[in-house]
Amino acid sequence: MLGYLGRRMLMAVPILLGVSLVIFITVKIIPGDPVASLLGPTGTPEARAALTERLGLNRPLPVQYVSWLGHTVVGDFGTSIARRSAVAPMVFDALKNTLILTLAAAVLALVVGIAVGALTALRRTGPLARIGNGFALFSISVPQYSIGLLLIIYLAAGAGLFPVSGMYNPSTGGGFVDLFNHLILPAVTAALVPAGIIARMFRSSVLDVMSMDFIEALTARGLSRRRVMRHAFHNTVPSLLTVAGLQIGYLLGGVIFVEAVFAWPGIGLLVYQSISQRDLPVIQAGVLVSAFAFVLLNLIVDALHGLVDPRIRTSH
Predict the structure, then answer these.
(1) Which of 29, 47, 79, 128 is the least buried, fewest Cβ under 10 Å from its Cβ?
(2) For the whole prediction, is pTM greater than 0.90?
(3) Per-residue model confidence (pLDDT) at position 311
């Protein structure tokens, strides 16, 4: 098991290096001039030259990349151009908020996805199966921001059941109950797509397992339906882990629309605001930290996959 995990960790190193290079190049080709945005239209050529040198933008791109990567490895993400403060605390605080939203949405997506997938697999006909299949198709197809806006209009602004935006109510000073109330609508919005995908994939996995010979053999031996289904669901765990891991990774990088709609102070909203401000250090740090979290999540999923299915450890 340790050898298997070691190989997976070694594979993550070139992946992270490649991601860092792509992030650096992508940020550099974003239209706009950070020096001009900082100095404004009245900036003199001398001021432009001094600021360009101070930011290191006059050096060759390979030198900039190596310098940025070297500082990043030791946790130094630089200073925000727009906010004039250290990037690392800003990004990690935003990442913590994104992880809260991601965890809530992931739990909701897993519970709903497994329940709907199992229901539609075991009851392939009837109104419940049609409702479950319709829900899965609807959740995959509908845009998240549209659902978020509808929830805000009807449940938050209209009915007043939930807060409209933010993470805490400034007048109450926060607390778990306040956080939970603010979390419900964005978590439901973010969980829709992963829940639909998990439901459809879990349904297919259950149907595949139910058609295998060992299920027929267990039934012929006189085992109860509950025990047969327990064996069937146990054999769906590896595929469920893979799909769930991918969907949770999708949540880490894909909640930017949800955070923007609900003004959730996560890393997606931070990067979105920094793009309009041409704040290169924040953009680079935010995307790189999100990518690192995604790679780390995949390592955890691989470890769990290896624990539940020993064949994975011996085949890699």
Answers:
(1) 29
(2) no
(3) 63
Q: Is 58 exposed, middle or buried (0-12, 13-18, 19+ CB in 10 A)?
A: exposed
Note whether 71 and 78 are within 8 A (CB): yes
Report the phi/psi class of residue 163: left, alpha or beta, with left for phi > 0 and alpha for psi in -120 to 50: beta
Classify residue 114 as exposed, middle or buried by CB count within 10 Å of its CB (0-12, 13-18, 19+): buried
Cβ-contact 154, 226 below 8 angstroms = no
Per-residue pLDDT at 309 = 65
Token pair listed for 216? 């027929």
303 CB contacts (<8 Å, ≥6 apart)? 5, 8
Tens digits of residue pLDDT in 38-84: 676 777 888 888 878 877 778 888 888 888 888 888 888 888 877 88
Residues of the chain with CATH 1.10.3720.10: 87-315
Q: 87-315: which CATH number, 1.10.10.10, 1.25.40.20, 1.10.3720.10, 2.60.40.10?
A: 1.10.3720.10
The continuous run of DSSP H or E covering 152 comes out as none
CA angle 242, 248, 250 (to 5 degrees): 105
In this structure, are residues 92 and 286 in contact, taking their beta carbons and an 8 Å threshold?
A: no
CA–centroid distance for 95 within its chain: 11
Q: Are 267 and 95 in contact (CB under 8 A)?
A: yes
pLDDT of res. 12: 78
Hunting for tokens 């098991």 — which residue is that? Answer: 1
